[in-house]
TrEMBL record:
Cell compartments where the protein resides: Plastid, Chloroplast intermembrane space
Pfam families in the record: Tic22 (PF04278)
Lineage, top ranks: Eukaryota, Viridiplantae, Streptophyta, Embryophyta, Tracheophyta
Function: Involved in protein precursor import into chloroplasts. Imported into the intermembrane space via the Toc translocon. May be involved in the import pathway used by proteins without a cleavable N-terminal pre-sequence.
Mode of membrane association: Peripheral membrane protein
Protein name: Protein TIC 22, chloroplastic
BP GO annotations: protein transport
Keywords: Chloroplast, Membrane, Plastid, Protein transport, Transit peptide, Transport
PANTHER family: PROTEIN TIC 22, CHLOROPLASTIC
UniProt family annotation: Belongs to the Tic22 family.
One Gene Ontology term, aspect cellular component: chloroplast intermembrane space
């Protein structure tokens, strides 16, 4: 992997995607022990509501720690830096997006009952372009991708009214995409990935990233 992306290149692609965790009164991430009590993990949620539930559990189990604890938003590129520093952490995906991912895989003939990792969504029918280069937007929300696809097809139908809407969507895991980025060179196609934060308009975020 001599041509693999450097950590700072991967980190740039994660900038601007928020996750939520719990910090103590010194603004240090609160680490949670695993079931065996042997390893401490930082937990990061993709929904503020899940971070609130995590905070409630911490206050219930450790009232002393919980009194000064609070929810903080962290950009994914900062979390990735923790990985390069050897700090263990785990993501808690949005349950609704996990449900969407399982439904999509079932339609594709893979009726699994569990999804490993944080689901992400993309479509071959949605490509963004800038300066003769194509970019593949990857969404953390299936609803956001569907809105982007519908908007793109409406624009195309102004040129070609006979064009039919195609909402074909592929599902993968964020962790798998991250691994592929780490082991691919910038010209492999994986270097053209753009992550779209939940609730964000794809074109607006892409324009901001390109600028």
């Amino acid at each position: 992997f001599d041509l693999a992306m450097a950590p700072d290149q991967v980190s740039k692609r994660l900038d601007g995607v928020p996750v939520y965790t719990v910090s103590n009164h010194d603004n240090e991430f609160v680490l949670i022990s695993d079931s065996n009590g042997h390893k401490s993990l930082g937990l990061f949620c993709f929904r503020h509501e899940d971070a609130e539930a995590l905070l409630a559990q911490i206050r219930d189990r450790e009232p002393g720690l919980g009194r000064g604890a609070k929810i903080v938003a962290v950009s994914l590129d900062k979390v990735y830096q923790l990985k390069t520093e050897g700090i263990a952490f785990r993501f808690l995906p949005d349950p609704l997006q996990v449900k969407h991912a399982l439904e999509s895989r079932a339609k594709a003939g893979d009726p699994g009952k569990a999804f490993d990792g944080v689901p992400v969504f993309q479509s071959d029918n949605l490509v963004l372009r800038s300066k003769n280069r194509r970019f593949c937007p990857i969404f953390f929300s299936k609803e956001d991708l569907e809105r982007a696809l519908l908007g793109a097809f409406k624009q195309q139908q102004k040129i070609n009214p006979a064009l039919k809407v195609n909402t074909d969507i592929q599902v993968g895991s964020f962790e798998d995409v991250l691994q592929r980025l780490e082991s691919s060179d910038d010209g492999s196609g994986w270097g053209d990935v753009v992550f779209i934060p939940p609730g964000m308009d794809a074109l607006s975020h892409f324009s901001e990233k390109v600028s």
